[in-house]
Amino acid sequence: AINSQRAYIVLSHHIMAGLNATEATANQKTKSIILFYKYAPLSDDSDKMYILRDALETLCSQLHLKGRILLGMSTDAEGINGTLSGARDDVEACVVALLGKDGFSEEIDNRYSDIAKDFWNKSEEFSQAASVPPLYLDSKEDFKWSTVQSAEDLFPDLKIKLVKEIISTGGKLSSLKLNDTKQGYLNPEEWHEEMKKLNSAGQDDEKSNTILIDCRNHKEFQIGHFDGAMDPNTKTFEQFPRWVKQNRAGLDGKKVLMYCTGGIRCEKASAFIRRETGAESVQHLKGGIHKYLDKYGADGLFHGKNFVFDRRVGAEASSHMECSKKSKEPVDNVVGRCLYCEKPFDTFTPDGVCTVCREPTLVCDSCRTGLVEYHCSDHIYLRNCYFSDLSRF
Fold first, then answer.
1. Strand partners, 337
2. Per-residue confidence at 166, pLDDT binned at 50, 70, 90?
3. What is d(CA 80, CA 72) in angstroms, rounded to the nearest whole number?
4. Fewer CB within 10 A of the end CB, N or C, for the chain?
5. Where are the beta strands (DSSP E) in the chain?
6. For the residues of 284-309, what is the DSSP string, one character each?
């Protein structure tokens, strides 16, 4: 759940070209990716926060990891949000370090013990300076894993930033505090049962009283989602609070179920719905789609690809599974549709962006040959009159 989504989409053609090339097989290596977040008290003092930032940068650099980490400058509302990629052993060493010295210290490989101890010492230094507990993840379950065969790195570099919000809302959800989050969880097994009930229900009271909301943005929903989910049709998470206020009446008295990619958006989105509406109950998928696919993969009830924030852009369900459980048969599970011909298509391409707003747009190969510029669903009505390139006229 990290920023710069469009930059990753522009870069994605490099890895796709590598994966499709015949010589790629010899050069490909297995890359592991972890997503993680934690809402926790930190500090609004930049000098103190740089102690933690530098500790994380040193840790990741020594482990040859690339990716994005955001640190929220707040004593009571933010925390850490990260996505990292590298060789499996290096990523596992990072997980051990982020769990803290009391987490899984017995599992530390001798190659990494000094690196982990150095990180723990610096984390304790930050803790004392900021008068807060050390920022460690609670358990191995807080990390979402996936793997991919690639000859290239999934991120171009490592960036660790101090930010006001670890998931950007333009300040619209900044009033939500730590006590407002961390509730209403459904683990993947519990969520699976809820989805089965919704799918098997007719027009009974259970189904009519339940609202299933996809908290992600429209482009993410387009290529994969749970059946029956509402798409708020947002382009950024900043727009979600406005959607809630516009649909407040429809949420009153309802059982609300919510999901997102990794869980971080749902933490605040669910807290906002609890505060702003009269919903009967509000629950969300702990660990998000990613953790659900770790458990069920292509055999689950999520259909299509999971939109991810690295060069893959869209990840197949089976790529998330750490337990090596795969579907017995390949599944033709293309949820996305070309905006122009409506044929199945779920691949965002570097040049497939709306000429009006630059939003990634699904345009299949056949339609692409007859078009010079593209328009997203919000601006498709302008396709015969709005153009950025006037050279053909």
1. 344
2. very high
3. 6
4. C
5. 29-39, 66-72, 79-86, 144-150, 158-163, 185-186, 210-214, 224-226, 255-259, 281-285, 302-304, 306-307, 314-315
6. EETTHHHHHHHHHGGGSSEEEPEE-S
Q: Which two tokens stand for residue 100?
A: 């803290």
Structure tokens at 338: 């070309």
Helical ranges in 307-389 per DSSP H: 365-368
The one catalytic residue among 60, 215, 260, 266: 260
Instruction: Give me the phi and psi of 147, to 5 degrees please.
Output: -130, 155
Q: What letter represents residue 156's amino acid? A: P
Does residue 69 sit in helix, strand or coil?
A: strand
CB 93 within 8 A of CB 108: yes
Alpha carbons 347 and 362: distance in angstroms, whole number: 7
Q: Are 126 and 134 in contact (CB under 8 A)?
A: yes
Q: What is the DSSP letter of 28?
A: -
Extract the tokens encoding 205. Answer: 């009271």
pLDDT digits (tens, 9 = 90+) for 317-334: 655 555 444 444 444 588
Neighbours of 229 (CB within 10 A): 20
**pLDDT tens track for 232-272:** 999 999 999 999 999 999 999 999 999 999 999 999 999 99
341 is catalytic: no
Mapped onto helix, strand or coil, the DSSP state of residue 144 is strand
pLDDT bin (cut points 50, 70, 90) of residue 1 is very low
**Residue 288: closest CA among 231, 226, 356, 243:** 226
